[in-house]
Amino acid sequence: MKSTSSSIEVAMTIDNDAWRDALPSLQSLVDRAAPEVWRRAGRGGNAEASVVMSSDSQMRKLNHKHRDVDHPTNVLAFPLGEPMWPDGPDHLGDVVLAFETVVREAARDAKPLDAHVTHLLVHGLLHLLGHDHETESDAELMEKIEVEIITSLGYPNPYRDLQNVVE
Q: What is the pTM of this model?
């Protein structure tokens, strides 16, 4: 019998131990953010995704290989969206975060690390669900959804007062 419930499961891999020391609550951030993204997406059914908490050196390799950009970035998303078996959960893809870049950005923007990581998790998961920021209208829509999700999780608007920040 087919289940009518809707959920997302996220497997997290930590391949840079600095994450554990800097953010002991990392698993709970993922466990709170992912279901809220899934709920706000309004999708039925079940899904799976993976999150890799990595380093700048690994992120630089990924960014170079997949985007031909030879420096690290804060988050990359690799969407798949294919069911692993008939009527099974969609495997949405993978989200990767780079420790040093994320910590540096949080300090630069005077944001708590947990707030910034949550924002980047939401951002990456939205990419897995097909959102992007290639055009101004797409960017505005994605930002609006991010703000709704982030604030529903109890964090402040991640874009407030950041208009003058340039990377």
A: 0.89
